[in-house]
Amino acid sequence: MRLEARIAQGRGDQKADLVLKGGEVWDMVTGARIAGDVAICGGTIVGIGADYHGAREIDVSGTVLVPGFIDTHLHIESSCITPYEFDRCVLPRGVTTAICDPHEIANVAGLAGIRYFLDASARTVMDIRVNLSSCVPSTHMETAGASLSADDLFPLADHPRVIGLAEFMNYPGVIHRDPGCMEKLRAFEGRHIDGHAPLLSGRDLNAYVSAGIRTEHEATSAPEAIEKLQKGLRVLIREGSVSKDLEALAEALTPLTAPYLCLCTDDRNPLDIAEHGHLDYMIRRLIEKGRDPLAVYRAATLSAAEAFGLKDRGQIAPGKRADIVVLEDPATCRATMVFCGGVLAGDTAFAARDVVEPVARHSVHVPPLSPASFRYAGNASETSVIGIWPGKILTEHLRIDIPAIDGDKRPDAARDLARITVIERHGKNGNIANGFVRGFALKSGAIASTVCHDHHNIAVVGVEYADMALAAQRLGQIEGGFVVVQGGKVLAELALPVAGLMSLEPFETVRDGLVALRAAARSLGVELEEPFLQLAFLALPVIPHLKITDHGMVDVDRFEVIG
């Protein structure tokens, strides 16, 4: 009888289950501000712009009501917390829908990791939707904990929480028609396929989009975004903890382009969320930069819903999901109340959730290590060095003279040349690859992490080999996470025992742990705002220009291991 009830409540023949009284609805289609009540039946809006009575009524006078925000691409694992804590962390900020790609945990635990997210997402207050991880591993140049084929993924394609295929990172594999890539693309032909094509342009971009790919979040300049819009892609403006592209892409957001632009965070941790915000921060910042407010809110809501085929949301209108954010001032975008599917976000709603037991415990296997494991041999003095661009996951391919001393090219803190090492931790081959990185400004010690995109092996940066060995070994003892070491002592650590990626603690505890880690890293000289997430992306061989995996240094432009 819910259909009849919705109709009756919308007409006012029956009291609505819930009425929000006295606010103004900001319509994302016409831009109009519509005075009047909002009537809700169950989880569905049934009336706006009229006087309604409800079994429960909430006074929202003097406020503006906007649709719930939609994060169109993220990896919840990169928040270092479980889906349940992510729910509790960002829903009160207005994010009612999150479209996640669980490829971080899938690279550790395979299908079990994806199923964990599917099961958890059915129990959160926030509506979490899943794109199936397309590149596990991301390339052939790394050792992951699992490998997923089209045959593995397709049985989940019709799961009620699945949208389609997640970011297709192996863009060279698409362009050059790799058989494995073709198999996955054929399996999901006609369904949503998420893109990942950093700096791709011209005929290569034409070829990539011709594969049926619909969205793209890797644009890092306005001209790049415009070309991708012109080639038929929906572009997702990204502002993560490391990948900060909002400033560069803001000018691309206009009333004309807003229907084809969305917002996403990709990777954003609880400390960054606490200090700045989530999508609410992006909305505030875009408005501060002079972008049309309606265009900004449309990108965060209706445009996102349309881009991903979520026809039941994105507008406060009859028949739509009751995903509503109550704002005192849209310019500041600070939610006073948030409703998700008609449920008021708060302690009562969060306490009512069922919890799914986590998977992928005890997944960190550290091979035998000693200080000698971190030596770097080489005859030629010219050496490839990863150059960090702060605020970007793109890196430079530097070539610097580093002479060998006693058969070892050693770190040089005076020249900001630190050792970077990736250690295979899935127990498959024990690979250890050494290289150099510039940009951490390390003066002593080491930092280490098992959050290491996308294979999530151990990544260590340091200037002292013994400290690097200790940091990696400590990660094995705490089931993964982050560690800072100096002079043979652990200065700070954060355990992430779920796949070496997520904590079992509340997000507030993780936030405070990140504060301590950041302080410890700075005591070693590190100047980067988010050193651990920056480190994580140095091992991702699908982001230009130079990266490192357990196979060695990777020239991404040539898509090959160079040593």
Structural features:
563 residues, alpha/beta, TIM Barrel, 2 domains, eight-stranded mixed beta sheet, six-stranded mixed beta sheet, 18 helices, 29 strands, 26% helix
Task: Give a nutshell description of this structure.
The chain is an alpha/beta fold and 563 residues long. It folds into two domains: 68-317, Metal-dependent hydrolases (TIM Barrel, Alpha-Beta Barrel), CATH 3.20.20; 371-561, no CATH class.
Please provide a written account of the structure.
It contains 18 helices and 29 strands. The protein is of the alpha/beta class and 563 residues long. It folds into two domains: 68-317, TIM Barrel (Alpha-Beta Barrel); 371-561, no CATH class. An eight-stranded mixed sheet has the order 20-19-22-21-24-23-25-26, with helices on both faces. It has a six-stranded mixed sheet with strand order 3-2-7-16-17-18, with no helix packed on it. The protein has a five-stranded parallel sheet with strand order 8-9-10-11-12, with helices on one face. A hairpin with a 6-residue loop joins strand 19 (382-388) and strand 20 (395-401). The relative contact order is 0.13. The mean pLDDT is 97.
- Helical region count? 18
Ends distance: 67 Å
Radius of gyration: 24 Å
Per CATH, the architecture of the largest domain is Alpha-Beta Barrel
Q: What is the CATH superfamily of the largest domain? A: Metal-dependent hydrolases
- What is the helical fraction, as a range of percent? 25-40%
Tally of domains: 2
Report on the biggest sheet: 8 strands, mixed
Given as residue ranges, the uncertain stretches (5+ residues, pLDDT < 50) are none
Mean pLDDT: 97
The tally of beta strands, per DSSP, is: 29
Class based on secondary structure composition and strand pairing: alpha/beta
At the fold tier of CATH, the topology name of the largest domain is TIM Barrel
Beta-strand content: 25-35%
* Neighbour order of strands in the largest sheet: 20-19-22-21-24-23-25-26
CATH top level label of the largest domain: Alpha Beta
Shape: globular
